[in-house]
Structure prediction request, 408 residues.
Amino acid sequence: MNYEQAVRKLKEAGQEHILSYYEELSEEQKEMLLAQVDMTDFSILNSLKNQKEENAKGKITPLAAMQISEIKEKEAEFKAIGIETIKKGKVGAVLLAGGMGTRLGSDDPKGMYNIGITKQVYIFQRLIENLMDVVKLTDTWVPLYVMTSDKNHNATVNFLKEHDYFGYKSDYVAFFMQEMAPASDYEGKVYMEEKWKISTSPNGNGGWFSSMYKWGVAQKAMADGVEWLNVFAVDNVLQRIADPCFVGAVVANNCAAGAKVVRKCAPDEKVGVVCLEDGRPSIIEYYELTDELMNAKDENGDPAYYFGVILNYLFKVDDLEKIRERNLPLHIVEKKIPYLNEKGEKIKPEKPNGYKFEQLVLDMIHEMDSCLPYEVERNKEFAPIKNATGVDSVESARKLCKENGIEL
Ligand code: UTP
Prediction:
């Protein structure tokens, strides 16, 4: 793209300020900026105007979860099916590690965070230790696909290599990078990160399968016989990955997807809950849950929307293939975005100063024909690290690790 073309594209998008410093740039920087303008889809910024209509929800009704009591009764059957599926090499695990983890406040990728007290225990290490339990049980290496972003790819790859993948066999680890999206101020003007660089951020965890595909990693997985992908977040250090009982339950119930869920600890807890939307499985975010839905009861008189997702899903690869090119809803998220001010100085804001645009994996559930919400024990499987202190923090996760006999 040449300068004139860039001016035209930016004028149409109302983002001419991006070229404010153009005359000061070196030839190389000019080229980099023009290439970025060429690549960037500014149309996502229109969603700031249309957000309400675009993300309107359909009719919400309850979707019953398979509860722990039922799972216990069928545990042997489910486990046997799950183990067999894993042994046949049909299950892969996808670690979503492309996020910026801004709430934790560390400049390193979140997985590099050391939660140890008497020794070093990194978040990545904890996750791999958990996956190793399944490797040992099934005597099978589960392929591990790690999604990174432009912001943390090199640091993540180098860190895992330096630590010899914490004992995981490197042949079974593959990386791919997610896409980026421009970040803007509250008026929808894109921020600049450098005079020659538009401020971008990872485009949410919803694009994981299409990114996996763009990198050829999904095709390789399918060629290797992987039929199920267990997608999980980097920050839950009690996460069970490729859990045979969960895999077996989803396979036995002939579902296109499964979602691990926990009983909410309060009706207004900030987690998305499983439901049906216009008769299809869906997840409704906590801020979309009206008082009426929060207090609704199911036919047994129990709260109807009480099972919260923990970002651990199992998807059938065939069904992912079918929806790969579908557009998921865009979520506008308020975040702290480092930027260049009018004087060209770099500012690292203390509080949110604009929007990032994200697609979310939870919206993929609505694209699936069926989904099994599968209840797990909260204190055994859910210790997310979002913040440095307080709720869902390093402190709360350490406490839960201790309760589960994990030495830190
Ligand atoms: P979070 O919703 O906690 O987002 O991600 P985050 O960006 O990492 O953290 P904050 O909000 O800035 O503090 C949930 C999971 O999805 C991954 C994260 O790495 C985490 O495993 N994720 C999130 C991605 O892989 N890509 C993204 O663009 C966003």
User: Anything to note?
Assistant: The chain has one domain: 58-403. The chain has a mean pLDDT of 95. Residues 96-103, 147, 178, 202-205, 233-235, 311, 358, 386 surround uridine 5'-triphosphate (CB under 6 Å). The longest helix spans residues 123-138.
